[in-house]
């Protein structure tokens, strides 16, 4: 997400310095491009490569007006109801079928509406989110054979399914192990999302077990 206020301020600052020092136009444009590329590079690093949860959190909080960032932030600080509300905002905001179907599926799983979740997972079978969703639904139901029958490309997905199976089987030691493995296999926003999703899943499990 580009901070356009920052871009405008940068442009004005470079324009002022250009006039003061009589820089050629190409120099001013080059400075703006360099700063712009650095900003975009940092955005992609945080989103897809960082393993520093504190830095990722700082970025998420700064951009939480974006529906996806707001949802991810809600995983840490919100209730289950607020999570669902945040997903509904994403579904209403984005037009891309993959995004809409993914969050429709996730919302249905969170509501234990597995028939509806299966429907949206079917729409995503040409995307890695579909098989993962189907494996997750099977894991919640405790069907280990089916959960492990889907081909999952990402290591964090494989460990994530094992973590859910362990939770369903009421094996907290195994859950902690596989949840940690899943988080460590992920980077960027996915790492942050998994960390707080697992943390909340364990908390909800412990509350229901009392």
UniProtKB/TrEMBL annotation:
The keyword Membrane applies. Keywords: Membrane, Transmembrane, Transmembrane helix. The chain crosses the membrane at residues 5-21, 27-48. This is Uncharacterized protein. It comes from Solibacillus faecavium.
């Amino acid at each position: 997400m580009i901070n356009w206020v920052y871009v405008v301020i940068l442009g004005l600052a470079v324009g002022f310095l250009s006039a003061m020092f009589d820089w050629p136009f190409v120099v001013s444009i080059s400075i703006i491009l360099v700063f712009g590329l650095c900003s975009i590079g940092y955005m992609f690093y945080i989103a897809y490569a960082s393993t520093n949860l504190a830095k990722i959190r700082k970025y998420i909080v700064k951009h939480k007006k974006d529906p996806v960032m707001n949802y991810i932030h809600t995983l840490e600080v919100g209730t289950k109801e607020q999570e669902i509300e945040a997903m509904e905002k994403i579904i209403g905001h984005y037009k891309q079928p993959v995004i809409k179907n993914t969050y429709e599926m996730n919302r249905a799983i969170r509501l234990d509406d597995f028939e509806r979740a299966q429907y949206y997972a079917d729409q995503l079978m040409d995307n890695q989110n579909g098989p993962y969703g189907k494996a997750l639904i099977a894991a919640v139901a405790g069907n280990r054979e089916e959960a492990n029958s889907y081909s999952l490309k990402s290591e964090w997905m494989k460990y994530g399914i094992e973590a859910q199976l362990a939770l369903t089987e009421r094996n907290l030691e195994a859950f902690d192990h596989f949840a940690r493995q899943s988080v460590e296999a992920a980077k960027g926003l996915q790492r942050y999302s998994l960390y707080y999703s697992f943390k909340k899943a364990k908390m909800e499990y412990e509350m229901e077990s009392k």
